[in-house]
Amino acid sequence: MTWQEVVTLSLGAILIENFVLTRFLGVCPFLGVSKKTDTALGMSLSVIFVMTAAAAASWAIRQYLLIPFDVEHLSTIAFILVIAAMVQFAEITLKKHAPELFTRLGIYLPLIAANCAVLGVALIIRDSGNGFIESVLFAFMSGVGFSLALLLFSSIRARLEFSEHPEAFEGFPIALITAGLLALAFTGFAGMRIF
Amino acid sequence: MTQTMRQFKNGIIDQNPTLVLLLGLCPALAATTTMMNAAGMGLTTMAVLLGSNIIISSLRKLIPAKVRIAAFTVIIAALVTVADLLLQAYFPALSEALGIFIPLIVVNCILFAQAELFAYRNGVVRSAIDGLTAGMGFLAALIAVAALRELLSAGTLFDFRVLPEAVPEIAVMAQPPGGFFALGLVIAATQAVRKRGKARETV
């Protein structure tokens, strides 16, 4: 890969095709854990880690298991099992080797198994037909994009606590409208030409 | 009211999986650009939910509690794969429009919530009815969001022109931000109606 390709792919995954705000993947954790910046940070790190690892594992499984045995139609089942197993594995490894990080990320890890962003990145990579390095870089940058959206949103939401809004919009609806405004800002990147 | 009737009211109105319990928000945003997509997504999810509830409730005595989450995952993923392949074969246009959101039904929280909280603890018939009602609630929520989005972005419903041509089209409602706005408005409307209902009960 040339460095131009790396920059194009990275900015594309972070800004132009942001995972949460343009592709609607990972909206549940985006709305669920964005009340505090602290928890948002923990979730972001876990998602980046799991997404990158899941992309690498699912790419290898597809290339060396599903395609040789001609069972590509089973990719959804294979990917979700790999992701679930990997989340479990990540939990055990972190607990043993990095207990400090584990106590910070511990509660988010099981949640990630059911996060559509992780399965989503595996499926997007499957459909794109990219090579290994591009796929892993894309997954990592998509994770960074998710984190950017989550951290931005959590800091807006902290201010939302003290703002006045109609009673019916209490809680989730006002958060969704705010997310819409944030997404509107991100559509501004759509026409961006990088080179 | 009989138990079945109560289950229907619960699934569609009081405990609507998307508008009240706030589950399955990703498809409610991604598959609601048009009424056609919403109906396709809602019906597919409903079919998978019905199937998974029937299978899980009939196998509930055989699945050990320790590995139940893994068992649910495999059953749901198998059913979603079947649905995905059927759509690709018989409704290629819809399959194309919904893209990866069909395989992503696997991680729809509604399916897991239903499996864990209902199908694993109840008989086949009651689980089937509960799956059906929760599926209908999800479908109703998608249709409501999609109606708002298609009406405002194109002035049509199911591709039939409803608003006169003179009404300006709001293109952003068909784009990603419009999804957030429409879902927010629909949930706010639900909360307003529920609040009014509660106030009447207490008076």
Account of the protein in words:
The complex is a heterodimer of chains A (195) and B (203). Chain A is an all-alpha fold and 195 residues long. Chain A is 74% helix and 0% strand. Chain A has helices at 3-16, 27-32, 37-66, 75-97, 99-105, 108-113, 116-128, 132-160, 172-187. By secondary structure, chain B is mostly helical. In chain B, helix 3 (35-58) runs parallel beside helix 6 (109-119), helix 6 runs antiparallel to helix 7 (124-154) and helix 7 (124-154) crosses helix 8. Helices cover 69% and strands 2% of the residues of chain B. Chain B has helices at 3-14, 25-30, 35-58, 68-90, 92-98, 109-119, 124-154, 176-202; strands at 156-157, 160-161. The A-B interface holds A 21-28, 31, 73-74, 76-77, 80-81, 84, 114-116, 119-120, 123-124, 127, 166-177, 179-181, 183-184, 186-187 and B 22, 25-26, 29-30, 70, 73-74, 77-78, 80-81, 84-85, 100, 103-104, 106-109, 112, 172, 175-181, 183-185, 187-189, 191-192, 195.
* C-alpha termini separation of chain A: 16 Å
Q: Tell me, what's the shape of chain B?
A: globular
Helix content of chain B: 55-70%
Mean pLDDT of chain B: 87
Radius of gyration of chain B: 18 Å
Shape of chain A: globular
State the total count of DSSP E strands of chain B: 2
Q: Most extensive interface: pair and counts?
A: A-B, 43 and 39 residues
